[in-house]
From TrEMBL:
Family: Belongs to the cyclic nucleotide phosphodiesterase class-II family.
Domain of life: Bacteria
Keywords assigned by UniProt, alphabetized: cAMP, Hydrolase, Signal
UniProt GO MF annotations: 3',5'-cyclic-AMP phosphodiesterase activity; 3',5'-cyclic-GMP phosphodiesterase activity
Membrane-spanning segments: none
Signal sequence annotation: 1-20
GO biological process: cAMP catabolic process; negative regulation of glucose mediated signaling pathway
Protein name (Swiss-Prot/TrEMBL): 3',5'-cyclic-nucleotide phosphodiesterase
Presence of the UniProt keyword Glycoprotein in the record: no
Length: 319
């Protein structure tokens, strides 16, 4: 082989490697403030999400805030005070539904918080206004609703399938309805940063149990993003092991139903498109023996080859 051909081959290999690294570049950083689905009030669903290399975080659900920030600081994720993360780093909250394990951190920390936006669908916002921020259960820190609004938070109602800019960030959001014990609704948030996306699902049951097509509609909407490798990951709950009877799922997923739903997504996005795709498992419900069991079941049923991620409170990762 001549020197010229060797140099040409090296150039081709370097170029291919560069393109490969470009495809694998991360777009988002995640700091879980809470990852569990019940009992432990210091570790309930809440995930900080921001574009990489920024501190412009949004909080996806808000079950635990302060305790999670403290764990992240202990882990050296943040080098500032708990108050500064709360008041300056978190630019807004996205509440998937108004159950207390998804909103209690927002409520409890509201007196110490700074002005920002709380995003939710109409039904979710109505529940928070009427039952929490109502000047009776808790002071109304919002800019509308019962009593005397203190106007610390701007309550922004999100409409389905409409892309909405997220204030004080470079990101946008689209929302999709989920079924969480039909007819009660939860929400999926599709977050966009440049040409990259992350999908976060609040609590949801499988379509077949919920007698709904919400998940099928969601998978149809995001399938092109999976095909084009623009979707960096899906946050999705698995609350119970497979032994949980359907009538006692209460709007949640098992490993079996998770994989069935992911197969529906793959049918829409194309065979093999989910191999090594990031699936972030949320809302694990104690006791520990159930969590151990469902993790083993997910491992054994993962015939799609997805990359399963179990986030830990206060431990940063990138997507």
């Amino acid at each position: 082989m001549t020197l010229f051909k060797r140099l040409l081959l090296c150039l081709i290999l370097v170029t291919l490697n560069a393109f490969s690294q470009k495809d694998q570049k991360t777009s988002f950083q995640v700091v879980p403030l809470g990852v569990k689905g019940g009992i432990d009030e210091k570790n309930l669903s809440a995930y900080l999400l921001a574009p990489v290399h920024t501190n412009d975080y949004i909080c996806l659900d808000a079950g635990t805030i302060n305790a999670g920030i403290e764990v992240a600081i202990k882990n050296k994720v943040f080098k500032v005070s708990t108050s500064e993360v709360l008041r300056k780093y978190i630019k807004g909250y996205f509440i998937s539904h108004a159950h207390l394990d998804h909103v209690s951190g927002l409520i409890i920390n509201s007196p110490a918080d700074s002005s920002k936006t709380v995003y939710a669908t109409e039904k979710c916002m109505e529940m928070m206004e009427n039952h929490y921020f109502n000047d009776q259960t808790w002071a109304n820190f919002g800019d509308k609703g019962p009593g005397t609004p203190l106007k610390k938070y701007h309550f922004e109602t999100l409409k389905t399938n409409l892309e909405t800019p997220i204030t004080n960030t470079q990101m946008t959001v689209k929302v999709f309805p989920l079924s969480h014990v039909n007819p009660f609704e939860s929400t999926a948030f599709l977050i966009k940063n440049g040409d990259s996306y992350v999908l976060y699902l609040g609590d949801t049951g499988p379509d077949v149990v919920e007698k709904s097509d919400n998940l099928k509609n969601l998978w149809t909407a995001v399938a092109p993003l999976v095909q084009n490798k623009q979707l960096k990951g899906i946050f999705i709950e698995v609350s119970f092991p497979n032994e949980q009877p359907d009538q006692f799922l209460f709007g949640h997923l098992t490993p079996n139903y998770l994989m069935k739903e992911l197969h529906v997504l793959e049918e829409l996005s194309g065979k093999g498109t989910l191999k090594d795709f990031n699936i972030i498992i949320t809302h694990l419900k104690p006791p520990t023996k159930n969590i151990v069991k469902l993790k083993e079941q997910i491992k054994n049923q993962n015939d799609l080859g997805v990359k399963i991620i179990y986030p830990e409170q206060g431990e940063r990762f990138e997507l």
